[in-house]
Design brief:
Layout (H helix, E strand, L loop, with lengths): L1 H20 L4 E7 L4 E9 L4 E5 L5 E5 L3 E8 L4 E9 L6 E8 L5 E4 L3
Antiparallel strand pairs: 1-2, 1-5, 2-3, 3-4, 5-6, 6-7, 7-8
Length: about 110
C-alpha cells in the first residue's frame, strides 16, 4: 500500500513539473547510481529532487534523487552548464541533490531544497 501511495505521489509530482516546465527542457546528461549514463533533454524539479529526461527515441523517463548520482544540463536563461550531484548535507546528515557551483581545491555546493 505504501508503494502505491508513493508511486502516485511521484507521478503527481512529475505531471505537475511537466506542466510547469514543458518548454524548459535543456540538453544534458544523467549519471545513475548504477553507473549508467543517459543523454537527452532534461528538466529538474528542485522542490521534489526529481529529474525528467526525454530520450532521442521520444521516450521520457523520470528519476528520483535515490536513483541519481549526478547530472548536468545547459541553462539557457543563465547561459551556462549547471552541474548537480548527490551529497550528504553536513548539518542534517541526509543525502540531497546539490548544485556544484565551484570545484577545485575548495568545492562550493548549493542546496536548492531546504
Amino acid at each position: 500500500m505504501k508503494r502505491i501511495v508513493l508511486s502516485l505521489g511521484l507521478a503527481w509530482t512529475v505531471m505537475s513539473v511537466q506542466a510547469q516546465h514543458k518548454d524548459h527542457w535543456s540538453k544534458g546528461e544523467i549519471r545513475l547510481t548504477t553507473g549508467e549514463r543517459i543523454e537527452g533533454k532534461l528538466v529538474y524539479a528542485s522542490n521534489a529532487e526529481v529529474v525528467s529526461i526525454k530520450l532521442e527515441n521520444g521516450m521520457q523517463k523520470t528519476y528520483s534523487s535515490s536513483q541519481l548520482q549526478s547530472f548536468y544540463f545547459f541553462d539557457f536563461r543563465h547561459e551556462l552548464i549547471r552541474h548537480f550531484k548527490k551529497s550528504t548535507l553536513p548539518n542534517e546528515g541526509r543525502e540531497a541533490v546539490v548544485e556544484v557551483v565551484f570545484e577545485g581545491d575548495l568545492q562550493v555546493l548549493r542546496c536548492l531544497k531546504s
